[in-house]
Amino acid sequence: MCLHGGQLVEILRGNSKGIEVINLNLDKVYSIKAMREAIKIFKLIKQKNVEIVVTYHESSDFLGAIVAKLAGVPVMISSRRDMGYKLKKRHVLFYRIINNLFDKIITVSDAVKDETFKRQNVPWHKLVTIYNGVELEKFHIKVDKDALKKSLGLEKHIPIVGIVAALRPIKGHKYFLEAASIILKDLPDTYFLIIGWYDDENYYKELKDFTKKLGIEKNVFFAGGRSDTAEMLSIVDI
């Protein structure tokens, strides 16, 4: 069940293998529409006799936890994927209230676990670290590297330094670009490839402008969001 829609909905539907994917398409969880959808979720939980609810990120945590609790779901799990850098004071306060509803809270790293424990006053026994998994077989592929480089406008003999991350300030792309400007002084024949989608047009433009300010725009390539990450990584040297 997806709250906000977007590309993820279509990706999930294309790979769901018979699992129903529901798009609520909510702008805010604090709205009349959200209340109507909450009633639908409540009825669906009852109809399907749902026994476990897992929520991701604050909007799903806030709406899902309350609805699931009211519906009498036996097991409720929350998953925390980052250090909570986007959380405002009101979010932290609300988390301190609803965290009591969850049986377990999965964190993606021990650093996230420690931050959640300290900032949100979560009992230590509720926190469990489960690291992100990687399907290694997906990276054991044959790729026509020269053809892929050509499609990106890259010369095949020039080494490539890459970064794969969503274009957000927390990911540190500006540090990557600053490092690129230093490296290019000694190794001018080097490409810097940035792979990652963005949801903030202004920040994307800011990074492009920063590249020009550093005078390295001819060596930096923004590939955008890609579904062929394994293929893209195959052409990256560092």
Please give a handful of descriptors for the protein shown.
single chain; 238 residues; four-stranded parallel β-sheet; Rossmann fold; alpha/beta
What can you see in these coordinates?
The protein has 2 domains: 7-129, Glycogen Phosphorylase B (Rossmann fold); 136-234, Glycogen Phosphorylase B (Rossmann fold, 3-Layer(aba) Sandwich), CATH 3.40.50.2000. Helices cover 42% and strands 14% of the residues. The chain has helices spanning 7-14, 32-48, 57-70, 89-98, 110-120, 145-151, 173-186, 201-214, 229-234, and strands spanning 52-56, 75-80, 104-107, 127-129, 160-164, 191-195, 220-224. The strands form 2 sheets. A 4-stranded parallel sheet has the order 1-2-3-4, covered by helices on one side. The protein has a 3-stranded parallel sheet with strand order 5-6-7. Strand 1, helix 3 (57-70) and strand 2 (75-80) form a beta-alpha-beta unit. The model has no long low-confidence stretch (mean pLDDT 92).
The name of the CATH topology of the largest domain is: Rossmann fold
Specify the CATH homologous superfamily of the largest domain: Glycogen Phosphorylase B
Rough shape?
elongated
Strand count: 7
Architecture per CATH nomenclature, i.e. the level-2 architecture of the largest domain: 3-Layer(aba) Sandwich
End-to-end span in angstroms? 37 Å
Sheet with the most strands? 4 strands, parallel
* Main CATH class of the largest domain: Alpha Beta
Helix percentage: 40-55%
Strand ordering within the main sheet: 1-2-3-4
User: What is the CA-atom radius of gyration, in angstroms?
Assistant: 22 Å
Strand content: 5-15%
Query: Which structural class best describes the helix and strand composition?
Result: alpha/beta
Question: How many alpha or pi helices?
Answer: 9
